[in-house]
Amino acid sequence: MSVLAAASVSCTKTGPENDNTGTPEGCPVTYVRFPAQTIYSGDRIPVLGSGFSAGTVFYLVSDSGTGVQTEITGVTVTASGIEMTVNVRAGEYMFVIEQDGRWELGLITVAARPIDVTVSGVPQYCLPGGSITVTGLGFSATAVLALENPETGERTLLDTEAGQDRLTAAVPENAPKGKSSLVIVQDNGEMTVSRSFFVTTEKYLTGIKFSIGSGESAYTREINVSRDGAGNITACTEYGISIVPGSDASHGEYSAYTFSATPEAEENYGYTDYMFKVDGSRVLSYTIEFERQDETGGIYCESREIDWEYDRAGYLVYYGQGTSELVQEDGNLNQGGMYVYEEADLVNNPFAADFTLTSLASNDIQILIAQIFGFTGTKSANLPSGRLGGENSEASEIAYVFDEEGYLTSASFREGIMPVTIEYRYE
């Protein structure tokens, strides 16, 4: 393929046989018509027209804005026009000839030929240098997996081992990072099996910051952590941390993380102490100290342990008072219908934070801490496109910012009249 460099003059591609309107003066080919039926990649098709010569050079030029042209070889000139094989991917192409000049003869739309396969399992992501497996039935020995850039259409063909019930492919170290479409290419046909596959690096969340309001009156809440080379958290702003192993009848073996708020944090933010029981991947319970007043007016502290509950899929559905409406619907967390999931393309990076839980953390500091540690269970599959501010209110649109590997770095919306921004930091 080469890049289109010369200007072209358009001929008409349709019209009655005896009315060749639109043909510019000097165009050697007239009465150009393409097949009315769907054109699939790999088809050999007739193009009707008068004036094609044996020395004509034929091209299909991508209309995607890239200006890339593919020369068509093996063209047969007939008494009624030509016959040619369409060896290009699905898309829209300008049919161009070079014959006594360069001429555009009209647009051809090429469809992807359907393939007769059944797909049962598709991965969500892969780390560079790893491998992926798509399971199903009907794969041929020539089937290949490809990653396609959703914006440019550029494809990366993967080295694929094909079996009748699975395709296993290696993802190169230099594969483009971020969200891609995952495509099966087989026997001149293809099938897109995922439009939200991530090639991504596993990063650790190191900080979350809330800003509510604007200007000098804005309220901010921020938690940052330090991690060692293995990703273990060694320090947390506003808190001291201690970690000890333990076990009990209710939770089995666990690690007990105790967060002791500094006096400044208690005074400035109302932070308090927490103790989390964690099984290595999620919070089992947390314990908080409540101040109580006895009959004589004396103040004492009372500990309360609150168990966290998860559904069978591993989504957090209860973490204390006020969370009874936290549910998982179609792989996405929601609370009392507050979050609107309308855009299927708003897919969470598999290693990033769950925005829905993070937005709840503006009022629940224990969720904020658990989010940074990664102890909140299975994450929502998608990001919500809107958030309701209250009953009968319209959903506030959520604007997102991502880094080059699909990690969510900022989310902004309005809570009533107040602007809210959540920032995420990773390493």
The major beta sheet can be summarized as: 7 strands, mixed
Alpha-carbon distance between the two ends: 40 Å
| Global mean pLDDT | 86
Described by its quaternary structure, the protein is: single chain
> Strand content of the residues, in percent?
over 45%
CATH class of the largest domain equals: Mainly Beta
Determine Rg (CA atoms, Å): 30 Å
- What is the CATH architecture annotation of the largest domain? Beta Barrel
Instruction: Please report the total strand number as a whole number.
Output: 38
Explain this structure to me?
The chain is mostly beta strands and 427 residues long. Strands 1, 2, 4, 6, 7, 10 and 11 form a seven-stranded mixed β-sheet that branches. A six-stranded antiparallel β-sheet has the order 23-22-21-38-37-36. Strands 13-20-19-15-16 form a five-stranded mixed β-sheet, with no helix packed on it. A hairpin with a 5-residue loop joins strand 6 (57-62) and strand 7. The protein is elongated, with a radius of gyration of 30 Å. The two termini are 40 Å apart.
